[in-house]
């Protein structure tokens, strides 16, 4: 009998220890800041942090990083706090103990987020998403900086499964209020002023961020080109290391992509400049196009790689001077994230062609007649959607067979239609993929249906404000629509 008790006691202890090794993070929340104002206020702080940031802030940052597009085979996210190093479980929104003890690179950091993927471009996509998510908490004095030395330290001291290519250090630091000042004024009147604030909400846009490679051939307006160019690599009010800052960070404020981003349209090929002529002084601010050729080179660009969509009216070609160094390649990813986000906000389709192989890079250089020192690494295709369906500005989100009316916490209206009879499964999930509510399943003939959800989970408790997904499953096909409960 004593042996039985001992076994039970050991089992209880084991379960307790195992449970303590997993920490569930709070669900992401909406900070009601636009993508544009966050981009205009992103800046890096290298030291002087204090280590007092909430788990809510960490949750939003990790969620945002994982929403960035995937372009490689694996993705690992690690978090170092003053007490432990954790592996972030993206499916369950949990921190899983990876290494006990304090293993931070920066002793003042509240937490450090390290990313391991195959490609530096994907690192850039993820880091930029996390930077803006942190900037949304400016009211909590959140400051951050991507650090290569911290990544080297983490790879040696955190025992990761794969090499950590970048660490984003976060901490508390007295920060200025968000600034809407637009410094992107064109010196040659080639581009209109971009907007530095908007009506969109960063977390909502990111929650539905998507790529689409089919376009309406209608040319983009100069205002749209201006907004995209600024979001990708435009100047902002802050200064760093004596240099005018941009919407994206740069290792040691080198801004490797200066004069290396090209816009390809029916009217020709232009180089985008964010510095005054000749465009090389990093202390200056500009927002202009520099004509390279008046010929329409889009067909030549498309022929350079069969991965580039053939119907886009405009392309942004992101180049670097050195593909072997982490700084330029990650910076290209920063720009790509910004372009894709801004396109989604403008109601445009966007698509990233990445990575490019050596043959494709050489062919693109020839097609556009750009300097051989400008090596293309990402092509961003952009244009109007092919259909007339555009729910922007309405109170409905539409994805295939489901519509969700703009909801509040007491009543969500879900509209769906069935092409054939069957027993559909309708359910509500949060952004971590956790089942919140499932409707009763019953056989239904083909037709149109509307159901109401009272904002309560399966246990009868009110859900928190935030982003949710309504999912309709039938005949091995799934349709879903994301929606936001804001009140």
Report on this model:
- There is one protein chain.
- The protein has 487 residues and is α+β, with helices and mostly antiparallel strands.
- The chain folds into three domains: 153 residues, NADH Oxidase (3-Layer(aba) Sandwich); 182 residues, 3-Layer(aba) Sandwich (NADH Oxidase); 90 residues, Immunoglobulin-like (Sandwich).
- The chain is 25% helix and 29% strand.
- It contains ten helices and 23 strands.
- A hairpin with a 2-residue loop joins strand 10 and strand 11.
- The longest helix has 20 residues.
- The protein is globular, with a radius of gyration of 24 Å.
- The termini are far apart.
Key descriptive features of the protein:
10 helices; 487 residues; NADH Oxidase; alpha+beta; disordered N terminus; six-stranded antiparallel β-sheet; Immunoglobulin-like; seven-stranded antiparallel β-sheet
CATH C-level label of the largest domain = Alpha Beta
Give helix % range.
10-25%
Q: Which percent band covers the strand fraction?
A: 25-35%
* E-strand count: 23
Radius of gyration: 24 Å
CATH homolog superfamily of the largest domain: NADH Oxidase
Give me the number of helical elements.
10
Low-confidence spans: 1-19, 388-400
Shape: globular
CATH architecture of the largest domain: 3-Layer(aba) Sandwich
Which structural class matches the secondary elements?
alpha+beta
Oligomeric state as shown: single chain
Q: End-to-end span in angstroms?
A: 57 Å
CATH topology call of the largest domain? NADH Oxidase
Mean pLDDT: 89
User: What is the total number of structural domains?
Assistant: 3
Biggest sheet record: 7 strands, antiparallel
User: Spatial order of the strands in the main sheet?
Assistant: 1-4-3-2-5-7-6
